[in-house]
Amino acid sequence: MSRRNKWVLALMLLLGIGIMIFSMRDIKFSILVDDFVHINFWWFGVAVLCMLVYLALEGVIVKVFISDRIEGFTFKDAIRIPMVEQLFNGITPFSSGGQPAQLIALMQTGVDAGKASSVLLMKFVVYQSMIVINFLFALVVGFHSIQDKLHALAWLVVFGFTIHLAVIIGLLMVMFWHAFTKKMVKVVLTPMRWVMKAERFSRMEDNINGKIDSFYAESVRISGQWKLMLRVFGITFIQLMFYYLIPYFIMLALGYTTANIVMVTSLHILIVMVISLFPIPGGSGGAEYSFEMIFRSYISSNSKLVLAMILWRLLTYYLGMLAGLVAMVMRPDKVTEKDNLPND
Questions:
Q1: pTM of the model
Q2: Domain-wise residue ranges, the chain
């Protein structure tokens, strides 16, 4: 990690502590401790397990994609990728640092940069597609509930969905309308030519076109492997379900055993969509506010509501960053390219 990243990590930890302290401003610390001591640690353990399985399944997805082309790519290398992603997603606005960090982590194992970029883009397409599909289900089930609780902020959910859908459409255009997409990109980039130096603009344009060409080549290769893609889609769906179920098991741990699993899961999907719109790394502030507002009607005790929020953030945000720090000190294995495998 660079010095700047270390400073950002420290800042996010301090910000998180500050937000949690602010959330407890009207609650006696002794009551919060008593609530924590009396939670059902078996159910909380299930919530922790859900987050660990979420990370492990993403490692499985990485291994499925990479092992299709590379020899000697171990599961240790595969699980290291999502752990690194969690760390850099957590310290960059809009989770923008996750993709570059994964690319560097894959290159450290010996995977060619072009192939690594293509694989990560395919993984991103699958992941975004499943987010959109899950969101459509959650929108039908839980939007009326979130609209009653967040009012105008509910439309942030719809806005977030629109952004995710636009990303998917753009990537699908690269896959199926390659030449047309490159022409559109050239038109969109034209205004940048007026405000940038010619050399810098040329480098940026070549870089974007290179990524488009690389992704298109990978999509052509993968498109004929429908069994592999179905497998990855299935694993990604299960992976996201484990993640979305975390608040439900936290509620069970706090004694709310009558919680509706479908509704709670749907509301969590909508919360995740809202968080993606906050520019602060990890959606700090917005995430905590959204959780408290949405689950206030389900968790009647203020102290337990704050405790639920804290436990949720510890598992879904800070545990991932801790895993990323562990991944940063893990020594990657080296791999050998399968030159005899067909690339088309």
A1: 0.87
A2: 3-12+39-330
